[in-house]
DNA sequence: CAATCTTTGTGCACGCGTTCACAAAGACAT
DNA sequence: ATGTCTTTGTGAACGCGTGCACAAAGATTG
């Protein structure tokens, strides 16, 4: 799956392994489907198949939540839906703001999967003044100037960043400063955040690259893997190669100017950031 | 990671660990940024910071590719860009089709991160006849009827599914039958595919749910964690609870009837499919 | 050429996650 | 009640991934 994991050292918040937490939404979806079909109970085998995992893994996952099954019968669907929802915190309302209303931001705003799980789009924010007031998914877009006010007034603690890479860190800093403690980042940049803030990343091109790797392995044993295997290249091949790989500039932005702290260095501090400007299409990575 | 990992048993294609493969795109992005700033070399420490990982991990990752560094100096940026690109298979052109041109599909079509890494959008496909011919991102949308022809003529091996959940499995089957061997799935459904086909999943709401879990843990020790901890619920709480958790139907759809191998066999029964509710406005595939 | 300094590459240990396999628990039939 | 059958819950083994720590390698300086 989309990759998206952060570099946080797998906190294992309260006994439940991180890997298990990541699968709970999967189980919940399958269970919800069963619930709608009025299926009263499921065995671990059936549910595991529906969720696409191993049944032993599923049982172990559930064992971290408690003993919510009946031996010889299986799990009560409705009860399990409730327990998992509660464990994930979906029994409460989560106001969310989406920053960067390009194609992707608009798609997210329209995405039905949010509302159906307790996530409510509290506001849409964009830096383009021309967007201000325009309704997207029935919600008027507000200007970035309002960001702090919106966060504060709506009590938002989860922010979604769908801006171009160049603007992401800046937006992130403002969100965090305003009180947001969880961020879902769609911009192709590594965000630095202070401790206590969770970041999850979704990078569409990364997923494709991973697929390409496996794809290459499938058809690709007969390819040109011979000559260029271990040759020391001319030190000045630079431009040519770069042009081949990435003809269009990527401009991940100077934000990634490594060299900050010794290792991690999550510096919420200033970020000159330079030009980001463009918000034309979607994340011109 | 957004997650998005499939249930394939981590094939470790050719010695390179799956976890390492998943990080290579990360390194590549950071390196590309350095390349554009004309930085000749980087140390593992610097690059690791830019990519948001541990430096020891980075060095070990690179060691799987070969000895591409110079002790006392670091790594040649351009050379490393080339090596990683080649390893990922990005030195060749990958035609891609996107099926389901709703908000999300359109966002993907416009996404710049594809073209800049060797991925070329060969075609856009949608089931809505009204969409046919309409240009999105400069590419005319074609009707689903053309799917097989397009795949065949363009030699596409990677497909992106951005349809509603209810249509995903059907589209998937047709893609696979037409020769696609790698699928990036944005629909909230578990796809069943034959061996040899790779599936990676990106589920936006899953990422948010994971964030919600951690968010709950942060502010939430003083919450209502007492009373409803281990109570055996009335067996008929069903509807009420379901309504609370998921007011809008989601209907991940029975499409997930894995039922291929022996272990799978989940509810092979008929699938009236019913209302797929979720993702109404978006993705009218 | 020798000494020193920097940084890579990796052996090793540890912890997490996955999977197997089975005893315990309950349902159900007789 | 007793026995059988199904399915859970989990102890234990295994394998992968991560991070430490250091020797080896090369640059650099005197």
UniProtKB/TrEMBL annotation, chains A, B:
GO biological process terms on file: negative regulation of DNA-templated transcription; response to redox state
Instruction: Provide the CoA-binding domain boundaries.
Output: 89-190
Record-linked Pfam families: CoA_binding (PF02629), Put_DNA-bind_N (PF06971)
| Annotated Gene3D superfamilies | NAD(P)-binding Rossmann-like Domain (3.40.50.720), Winged helix-like DNA-binding domain superfamily/Winged helix DNA-binding domain (1.10.10.10)
Known SMART domains for this protein?
Answer: CoA_binding
Q: Which InterPro entries match?
A: CoA-bd, NAD(P)-bd_dom_sf, Rex_actinobacterial-type, Rex_DNA-bd_C_dom, Tscrpt_rep_Rex, WH-like_DNA-bd_sf, WH_DNA-bd_sf
Location within or outside the cell: Cytoplasm
This protein's source sits in the domain of life called Bacteria
- Bias type Basic and acidic residues, positions: 217-235
Bias (Low complexity) ranges: 240-274
| Gene Ontology CC entries for this record | cytoplasm
Query: What are the binding positions for NAD(+) in this chain?
Result: 100-105
What is the similarity comment for this entry? Belongs to the transcriptional regulatory Rex family.
Q: How does it assemble?
A: Homodimer.
Role according to the record: Modulates transcription in response to changes in cellular NADH/NAD(+) redox state.
Query: What is the designated name of this protein?
Result: Redox-sensing transcriptional repressor Rex
